[in-house]
């Protein structure tokens, strides 16, 4: 019987963007996920993301009878860790994909920036407000994304999934629009949690692992000090930027599989008398 792996996506990328990654994991895991965080009015985007954590926990509570593995990319990694802090009895372990814990002076600086509206420039929030949302047809979506430098290193199959499943018909002929609402993406960036570092300073109640992109701007900005302290030897690096799961889905799947195996082994060792 396969373990359940509940995956949480990065900000702005509906979970179907990760279809290729899931295909490489489905022999070992039963994959479940929330499609788009922040789009259910019952779970609005607010500072520190408590309702987004509620959305993840609600999904777990409704579906599972046994503890599950939580894996998340960027936003999803933070939500996975925060859910494990809230309900550790529901979680076997967490794998965070380029979701570096913000702590210490960096967390204080971010909190001040959020208060005075100075946090927008160093994050993708400003670009989000200018993001294109409509295209005349599916081929125009594909051509638009393919021409952007940020997508140049993406696996082509993953990019096609994003072009198709990250957009939806508008009902106006062949026109398509982004499925992840631009304003919700913007608000998620503007409400990054600043208290998480303090909450995990003494560790977490479940095993936690981390995979960092070697060229990740987010890792450079946040540092890895607090993350290293949290995960210990369960830290891995992969060639790529912050969006490495889209660039290298096969390698990402392999690291997830290896880290879950390590956490499973660590848990079995702890359970022995």
Automatic annotation (TrEMBL):
GO terms of molecular function: hydrolase activity
Keyword Hydrolase in record: yes
Pfam families: Abhydrolase_6
Keyword annotations of the record: Hydrolase
Superkingdom per UniProt: Bacteria
All residue ranges annotated as the AB hydrolase-1 domain in the record: 9-253
InterPro entries: AB_hydrolase_1, AB_hydrolase_fold
Keyword Translocase applies: no
Protein name, entry field: Alpha/beta hydrolase
């Amino acid at each position: 019987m396969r373990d359940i792996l509940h995956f949480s996506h990065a900000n702005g990328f509906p979970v179907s963007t990760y279809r290729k990654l899931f295909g490489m994991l489905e022999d070992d895991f039963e994959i479940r996920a929330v499609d788009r965080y922040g789009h259910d009015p019952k779970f609005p985007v607010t500072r520190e993301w408590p309702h987004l954590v509620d959305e993840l926990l609600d999904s777990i509570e409704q579906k599972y009878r046994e503890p599950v593995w939580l894996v998340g990319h960027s936003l999803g990694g933070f939500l996975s860790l925060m859910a494990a802090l809230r309900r550790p009895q529901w979680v076997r372990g967490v794998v965070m994909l380029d979701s570096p814990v913000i702590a210490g002076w960096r967390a204080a600086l971010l909190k001040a920036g959020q208060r005075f509206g100075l946090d927008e420039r160093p994050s993708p929030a400003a670009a989000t407000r200018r993001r294109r949302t409509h295209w005349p047809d599916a081929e125009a979506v594909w051509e638009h994304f393919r021409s952007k430098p940020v997508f140049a290193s993406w696996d082509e199959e993953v990019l096609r999934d994003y072009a198709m499943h990250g957009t939806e018909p508008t009902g106006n002929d062949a026109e398509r629009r982004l499925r992840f609402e631009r304003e919700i993406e913007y608000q998620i960036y503007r409400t990054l949690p600043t208290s998480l570092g303090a909450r995990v300073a003494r560790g977490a109640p479940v095993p936690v692992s981390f995979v960092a992109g070697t060229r990740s701007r987010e890792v450079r900005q946040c540092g890895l000090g607090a993350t290293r302290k949290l995960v210990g030897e369960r830290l891995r690096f992969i060639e790529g930027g912050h969006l490495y799961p889209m660039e290298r889905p096969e390698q990402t799947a392999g690291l997830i599989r290896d880290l879950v195996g390590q956490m499973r082994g660590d848990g079995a060792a702890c359970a022995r008398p």
